[in-house]
Design a protein that fits this description.
The chain is mainly alpha-helical. It has helices at residues 2-8, 15-36, 44-68, 74-95, 102-116, 126-137, 147-181, 190-198. The model has no long low-confidence stretch (mean pLDDT 79).
Length: 202
């Protein structure tokens, strides 16, 4: 998404050229893969299905996203991409005439909402979800890390991240001090002007 946005942003390249270019490159690679693996030519009944897939995957998605990114930012496009897996699962279930459980629809809706508003996941305790799911699958309890040990691991990780941030800040401060120490103060420049401006306050 970011690269497509850069390519079509401010009229740098035509969205038609970018979208078609992606389709052409993908088509060439597909033809080479089919030729190298000696695949059979699809049956007549399969061409309509392939045409329907190609209309969406080869033309629809690349072209429409390229045109959309001329107006919308890459962040908006990323949100749409994040919702696609849930939308694909729902359409596949409907197209295949399947009857998923209510849990499927609940998770699909939750995933779609979380893609747009990630803060909703704060409402759920992921640790309890993992424990309940593992218990439902019959996972050996010895394979599950106890809660107190998980808390210790997270605490150690947080401390390590804090130490890394402090080390990075100290390095930046040291680099700034080194640059100031090596600055030329013999002639007139911005540093000497600032020093002269505040010299009367000492």
């Amino acid at each position: 998404m970011p690269l497509t946005r850069i390519a079509v942003g401010n009229g740098a390249l035509s969205p038609l050229f970018v979208g078609s270019g992606r389709a052409v490159i993908a088509g060439i690679l597909a033809v080479l893969a089919l030729a190298l693996t000696h695949q059979r030519v699809p049956a007549r009944a399969q061409w309509w299905r392939l045409a329907a897939v190609a209309a969406g995957v080869v033309y629809g998605f690349p072209l429409l996203t390229s045109y959309a990114l001329t107006e919308a930012g890459a962040a908006h496009g990323a949100v749409v991409i994040a919702v696609l897996p849930a939308a694909t699962a729902v359409v596949s279930a409907i197209r295949g005439r399947e009857r998923p459980s209510p849990a499927f629809w609940a998770m699909a809706a939750l995933g779609a909402i979380a893609a747009v508003k990630p803060g909703i996941l704060d409402k759920f305790d992921e640790d309890k979800w993992a424990d309940s799911y593992a218990d439902m699958l019959g996972v050996d309890p010895e394979l599950i890390v106890p809660s107190d040990k998980v808390a210790l691991i997270r605490q150690q990780r947080a401390q390590a991240q804090q130490q890394a941030q402090q080390a990075a800040q100290l390095e930046q401060s040291a680099n700034a001090a080194a640059k100031l120490a090596s600055a030329d103060t013999s002639g007139q420049n911005a540093l000497t002007d600032i020093t002269a401006a505040f010299s009367g306050y000492t």
